[in-house]
Every structure is written in C-alpha cells, then in structure tokens.
C-alpha cells in the first residue's frame, strides 16, 4: 500500500461533520466521558439532560482530557499509512489535551517523532473545525506539513468564535459558574456571549432578554466583522449546536443574508455540550 503524504489527527472538540471526518480520513482522539447520574436516562446526551432536569436532577457530564497513551496509539497507527501527521487540539488555555499530545510525541521513536506536528489551535468546536478545514485545503494544494503549520500559526488570530448557552444551570451544576453569578444573571435576564481571546475562553458581551440565540450571536458577529466585510475580505463561518438545529439554521440564514457562507453545521461534541447544556449555539469564522 502506498504511503500517503499527510494525515490528520484531532481531538474530539474539532466538531466537524462526520462526512468531513470520513472523506479526509481524520482520526479523532476521544475525551474520557462519565455520564454519572445521566446514565440512567434514555436517549441522546441532551435528551438525558432534559429528562434529568424534569426529575429535579441537574445532571452533567464529567470529562477528562485524552491521555498520553491515547494520542501515542493513534500516532503510531496513523504513521503506518502517512509520511507525516498534523495533530490539532483544543486551546491549551482551557484543556490539557495539547500537553497530552506533545508528551505522546516525545514517547515516539526519534524518527517517528519528527513526522508528527502538534498544533495548539487556541480555539475549539466551530473554530477548531475551520482550522482543520484550512489545513485540508493546504494539503490539497501540495504544501508540506511544516509549511502548513507555519501558515496556520501565522493565521490563528483570524479564526474567531462566539457562543451562548440556553440555560446556565448546567454550568452551575458542574461548577464552571459560581451559583451566585448564575442566579444573579438569571434574575436580571442577562446572558453572556463568550469567545476566545488569546486562547482563553472569556465573556465578550452581555445581552439582555435574549429570545433567540441566533439573533444574539448574529448581532455580535455583524458588529465584530463590519470593517472586515466592508474591506471586501471573504469570511467563512461554521456553526455548532447542542440539540438546537432550528436556531443553528436560523443563524446560517442570517449569515447568508450578508453574503457569509457557512462551511458546516454540526453538533457540539459531548465534552463541550455536556457542560454547556442543551440549546447551546456556537459560531466560528475565518
């Protein structure tokens, strides 16, 4: 079997659709998932969360990063078929996944180690997915692995992300938001819009009386990208959601109305959606 040039490995937070994963032979390294109390309920993870809520149990998913061995096994298997590998991870500022991948690289033989290139996307979900799509484009253009890494690292600042959750109770339950902050915001009908800044997940805006997450994210996006769009530069977007396809499609339509194409629309992975909760909507762009 002929050895292929460049293969792609990514952690589960990449959130690109299954057809893109299959078409480009992307190997995913999974997070560790513990459903805890949610395991007793039937259905998808978000159906489980809704049912648990109805019974007065605000269940959430406990997650942990992939181990060094998880990455090492994927690297060794993938290197049997590809001359070089590009590995993409969620931002190192919010997860130890990047560290697991770089440590796994050190456990490989010197020859194999030199063929693996690990990239900290400083992003996640819809944003991380767009970075991988850009890498795929570069591979098809014939660039070598180091050229692709150099181009992507120089371009990372241009990959943006916004997101909003439907209900903060899930983040409160998992300890991601202090109870008094969540309850106070709920009383005042305030909802944060979050995004990445230098790889750190931070609040980039506060909206009041949000009825549609799609409209709220679109307004923030439209404001953030006005100068870029007026300069004539093309923007490509991506949308991910936690069992909220209706709002995801509405957001896609709003973007189309200002000539922004959506590269993909996909579910949020369980490690992220399991904390953010049902209804979460995320918008990435490049």
Task: Outline the structure in words.
The chain has twelve helices and twelve strands. The protein is an alpha/beta fold. The chain has two domains: 4-31 and 66-156, Rossmann fold, CATH 3.40.50; 160-285, Hypothetical Protein Tm841, Chain: A,domain 3 (2-Layer Sandwich). A six-stranded mixed beta sheet has the order 9-8-7-12-10-11, with helices on both faces. It has a four-stranded parallel beta sheet with strand order 2-1-5-6, sandwiched between helices. Helix 3 (68-78) crosses helix 4, helix 6 crosses helix 7 and helix 10 packs parallel to helix 11. It is globular. The mean pLDDT is 91.
Order of helices and strands: EHEEHEHEHHEHHEHHEEHEHEHE
Please report the number of helical segments: 12
Oligomeric state as shown:
single chain
Q: Strand sequence of the main sheet, in spatial order?
A: 9-8-7-12-10-11
Short précis:
By secondary structure, the chain is α/β, with parallel strands linked by helices. 42% of the residues lie in helices and 24% in strands.
Question: Which features does this protein show?
Answer:
single chain; alpha/beta; Rossmann fold; Hypothetical Protein Tm841, Chain: A,domain 3; six-stranded mixed β-sheet; 12 strands; globular
């Amino acid at each position: 079997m002929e050895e292929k040039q460049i293969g792609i490995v990514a952690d589960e937070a990449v959130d690109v659709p299954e057809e893109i994963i299959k078409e480009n032979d992307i190997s995913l390294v999974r997070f560790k998932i513990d459903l805890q109390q949610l395991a007793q309920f039937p259905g998808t993870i978000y159906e489980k969360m809704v049912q648990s809520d109805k019974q007065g149990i605000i269940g959430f998913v406990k997650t942990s990063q992939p181990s060094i061995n998880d990455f090492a096994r994927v690297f060794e298997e993938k290197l049997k078929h590809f001359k070089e590998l590009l590995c993409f991870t969620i931002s190192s500022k919010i997860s130890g996944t990047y560290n697991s991948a770089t440590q796994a690289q050190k456990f490989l033989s010197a020859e194999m180690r030199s063929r693996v290139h690990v990239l900290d996307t400083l992003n996640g979900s819809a944003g991380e997915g767009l970075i991988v799509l850009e890498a795929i484009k570069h591979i098809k253009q014939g660039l070598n692995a180091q050229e692709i890494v150099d181009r992507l690292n120089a371009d990372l600042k241009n990959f943006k992300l916004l997101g909003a959750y439907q209900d903060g109770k899930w983040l409160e339950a998992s300890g991601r938001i202090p109870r008094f902050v969540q309850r106070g915001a709920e009383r005042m009908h305030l909802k944060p819009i979050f995004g990445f800044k230098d790889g750190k997940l931070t609040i980039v805006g506060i909206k009041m009386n949000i009825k549609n997450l799609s409209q709220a994210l679109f307004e923030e996006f439209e404001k953030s990208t006005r100068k870029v769009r007026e300069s004539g530069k093309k923007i490509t977007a991506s949308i991910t959601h936690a069992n909220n396809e209706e709002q995801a499609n509405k957001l896609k339509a709003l973007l189309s109305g200002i000539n922004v194409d959506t590269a993909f629309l996909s579910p949020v992975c369980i490690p992220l959606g399991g904390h953010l909760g049902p209804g979460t909507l995320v918008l990435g762009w490049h």
